[in-house]
Amino acid sequence: MSGYRRISVPVDGGDLTVGLWGDGAPVVLAVHGITASHLSWAVVAERLGGAGTLAAVDLRGRGGSAELPGPYGMERHAADCLAVLDTLGLSSTVVTGHSMGGFVALVLADLYPDRVSRLVLVDGGPPLPAPGEGTPEEQLDAALGAAARRLTMRFADRAAYHDFWRAHPAFHTWSATIESYVDYDLTGMEPELRSRVSPDAMRQDYIDLNFGDAPAKAWQRLRRPAVFLRAERGMFDEPTALYRDPEPIADRIPLRTIPGANHYTIVLDDPGATEVAAAIIKPGVI
Q1: How many domains does the chain have?
Q2: Is 179:171 a contact under the CB 8 Å cutoff?
Q3: Phi, psi of 222, deg, nearest 5
Q4: What is the pLDDT of residues 229-255, one digit of tens each?
Q5: CA distance 115 to 72
Q6: What gap in Å lies between CA 60 and CA 17, rounded to an integer?
Q7: What percentage of the chain's residues is helix, strand, coil (to nearest 5)?
Q8: Mapped to the 3 state alphabet, what secondary structure does 143-173 carry?
Q9: How far is CA 48 from CA 14, 23, 99, in A?
Q10: Any domain includes 187
Q11: E-strand stretches of the chain
Q12: Which end of the chain is more exposed for a tag (fewer CB within 10 A), N or C?
């Protein structure tokens, strides 16, 4: 999709960065995962093929919004997303969320149901399997692995950061789009480059999406129509999906499992990105 640009949206504590692809209606709001950025939606935006505008937010504590202060959590992110809807002049729109973004989207629709027409939840939003034993930090490390550990690491140059991500088991292929996504996450000066993601934001958000009242109540109430796209494979491309048992979700909303997609490639590569785009622009596609 052509016409990529970024805008700033005033929110509590500063400005939120939002990436936009395309022009005209409909305008869809997209929300990324716990250590990602708006550029995780770039391939989905391309697959929309000019069917409106995709507006993807950098959540507080990530990307261009990294310097925005806490507190964090799903309700805080939902309030920031509401500010984006206001700035874009959207009275109501489709909202899609990947991973943690699914939880943010659910809470947004629960707190402000008149502003959300439909939800497209992508491998995130419904309650996750119960975390394992240990402290929240230990659970977080087990759940996210290198994606979380990188927040305390330093990299000599961009090539070193590329090598770090190329070694991640979920990334089968390397593309210019993925490289741009990875580069956008870097800040600082060589040889002390680091991720822009706030460790505090990641920690607070992980605890809230797993144990907070707002995400749980949003799923229980489910105020807006929703569909769920499930990755067949897991966070590290393991054969066990992040959502191991899809039946409780399928009992509530339409669900489609994307064969071959893992938790990352369901938005960053095909067939996942094409399936997500279709679900966004074609109600009832699954």
Answers
A1: 1
A2: no
A3: 40, 70
A4: 999 999 999 999 999 999 999 999 999
A5: 21
A6: 9
A7: 40, 20, 40
A8: HHCHHHHHHHCCECCHHHHHHHHHCCCCCCC
A9: 31, 12, 20
A10: no
A11: 5-11, 14-22, 27-31, 53-57, 93-98, 116-122, 186-187, 194-195, 226-231, 255-258
A12: C
Pairwise CA distance, residues 99 & 230, whole Å: 10
The domain of 210 spans: 5-127+197-281
pLDDT greater than 50 at residue 275 = yes
Tell which residue, 285, 283, 280, 284, has the closest CA to residue 45.
280
Which CATH number fits the domain that encloses residue 249? 3.40.50.1820
Distances (CA, A) of 276 to 112, 182, 191, 223, 229: 23, 21, 38, 21, 7
**Residue 277, C-beta contacts closer than 8 angstroms, at least 6 positions apart:** 44, 47, 48, 49
Per residue in 63-93, pLDDT (tens digit) is: 999 999 999 999 999 999 999 999 999 999 9
């939902």: which residue's tokens? 78
